[in-house]
From TrEMBL:
Swiss-Prot/TrEMBL cofactor(s): Mg(2+)
Catalytic function, reaction form: ATP + H2O = ADP + phosphate + H(+)
Molecular function as annotated in GO: ATP binding; ATP hydrolysis activity
Name the record gives this protein: AAA-ATPase At1g43910-like
AAA+ ATPase domain mapped to chain residues: 238-386
Keyword Signal found: no
Residue ranges of the region described as Disordered: 307-332, 448-468
Keywords in alphabetical order: ATP-binding, Hydrolase, Magnesium, Nucleotide-binding
Similarity remark: Belongs to the AAA ATPase family. BCS1 subfamily.
SMART domains listed in its UniProt record: AAA (SM00382)
Keyword Nucleotide-binding: yes
Gene3D superfamilies in the cross-refs: 6.10.280.40, P-loop containing nucleotide triphosphate hydrolases
Length: 468
């Protein structure tokens, strides 16, 4: 033992070796600092640590970003719908809230906050999810959100082949049965869609419309949803365009709500003039999701790109009047070709199962190129209230399907232009059907006489000589 201890170097020798190594390390560090730029040093060190972590770690990470190749990432969307169903005891935080202002006792709904970790088990695999968020200002100033999925390296192929299809199938079932819908509006400052809960009560059972027209619209919508293979077979984008036109107050917005409630589609309400350019319009429209309604209301008023080009060229005064619709003199605005390109050009194929609805009070102002099939496939005239429409409104507002006054009212409606909105306003005056109907008959007679006087004819007289 004493001989072994005698062979060990002395403390002085060890200190001398340490000093020499330290001096050499300091010399090398100084040389590296002088010869290699600081950014290059950081890059080399980061690559070294990444290599070391990959070699030593047994985990593999999937990144699912919110955007994918200029479009919304459908994988992100299905994960976002799926994960709230996997919230369990191991979840370290929750985002909760309620959208029932009239019923505060309803339990709050659960969602996934940023940096929340969720553990999922699938076929013996342990999977850890995390939602992350960073600020991205590369093209548009907006929040960039993405999911991180961590699993064992050996489970990577199983996750791709069986776990992700399981998520997609589960999420599709959830989205088809979603209880609430959202309506989105575009925030130009943040360059992103802002949403709120959509709870419009209109359905095809409640709107005042001719039964044959209502049945046609419902069958057309159902046929569109069921014909994915047909659209792919004929080489067309899976979308459908509707034009709702007619006087104000004839129920265009209510029909949009009924379509959304019928299909269970979210609504994206777009003001075309909010887009600064064609590129901005493409970014806005490709940010919408599949299985949704893109609504462009009053397209004849929002921007000059929808107007008949011949009329715009002939009427310079109209052109000058529309110039203030531009956002600023520095913004080129949306061109007519830019709008058409998204409706049925190459960009129209960016997304599936979409309904595009235009509304206008003046169809004659629209450029004919907008009106052709492929852009506005179905033109629906929303006219004045008919006898059938009145009966539907009476059943909805008064709870009656027939009354002795109905014959008089229907005769007056045949010769009077009154909108469904005006009829609904009159029927809401009281809960007593008889009083409401008598008041409504007086309203119709006054309105008919006003129209008669405007037309230059004498007012219609009753047998007793009084105005009818």
């Amino acid at each position: 033992m004493s001989s072994l201890l005698g062979q060990l170097p002395s403390i002085t020798t060890l200190l001398s070796i340490y000093a020499s190594v330290s001096a050499m390390a300091m010399l090398l560090r100084t040389m590296l600092n002088e010869m290699i730029p600081y950014r290059m040093q950081n890059y080399i060190s980061s690559k070294f640590f990444d290599l070391a972590s990959r070699c030593l770690s047994s985990d593999f990470t999937f990144i699912i970003e919110q955007r994918w190749q200029a479009l919304n990432n459908e994988t992100f969307r299905v994960v976002e719908a799926y994960l709230p169903t996997r919230i369990g005891p191991s979840t370290d935080s929750l985002l909760i809230g309620s959208n029932e202002p009239l019923n505060p006792r309803v339990p709050p709904k659960k969602s996934i906050p940023v940096d929340c970790k969720i553990i999922d088990e699938f076929h013996g695999m342990r999977l850890e999810w995390t939602l992350r968020s960073i600020d991205s200002k590369k093209y548009f100033p907006r929040e960039k959100r993405y999911f991180r999925l961590t699993c064992k390296k050996g489970d990577r192929d199983r996750v791709m082949q069986s776990y992700f299809p399981h998520i997609a199938k589960t999420a599709q079932s959830i989205l088809n049965k979603r209880e609430t819908l959202n309506i989105y509006t575009y925030d130009q400052e943040s360059s992103m869609w802002e949403s709120t809960v959509f709870k419009h009560p209109a359905t095809f059972d409640t709107i005042a419309m001719e039964p044959k027209l209502k049945q046609f619209i419902m069958e057309d919508l159902d046929s569109f949803v069921a014909r994915k293979d047909f659209f792919e077979g004929v080489g067309r984008a899976w979308k459908r365009g509707y034009l709702l036109y007619g006087p104000p107050g004839t129920g265009k917005s209510s029909l949009v709500a009924a379509i959304a409630n019928h299909l269970r589609y979210n609504i994206y309400d777009l003001q075309v003039q909010s887009a600064r350019s064609d590129a901005d319009l493409r970014h806005i429209l490709t940010s919408t999701t599949n299985r949704s309604i893109l609504l462009i209301e009053d397209i004849d008023c929002g921007t000059k790109v929808s107007h008949d080009r011949a009329k715009v060229q002939d009427d310079q005064e109209d052109k000058d009047d529309e110039q203030p619709n531009r956002i600023s003199p520095n913004d080129p605005g949306v061109t007519f070709s830019g709008l058409l390109n998204f409706l049925d050009g190459l960009w129209s194929s960016c997304g599936d199962e979409r309904i595009i609805i235009f509304t206008t009070n003046h169809k004659e102002k629209l450029d004919p190129a907008l009106l052709r099939p492929g852009r506005m496939d179905v033109h629906i005239y929303m006219g004045y209230c008919s006898p059938a429409g009145f009966r539907k409104l009476a059943a909805t507002y008064l709870g009656i399907k027939d009354h002795s006054s109905f014959v008089t009212i229907e005769n007056l409606l045949e010769s009077t232009t009154v909108t469904p909105a005006e009829v609904a306003q009159q029927l809401m005056k009281s809960d007593e059907p008889k009083a409401v109907l008598e008041s409504f008959i007086d309203f119709l007679r006054r309105k008919r006489n006003e129209e008669t006087r405007e037309a230059g004819a004498p007012p219609i007289q009753k047998q007793d000589g009084k105005e009818s």
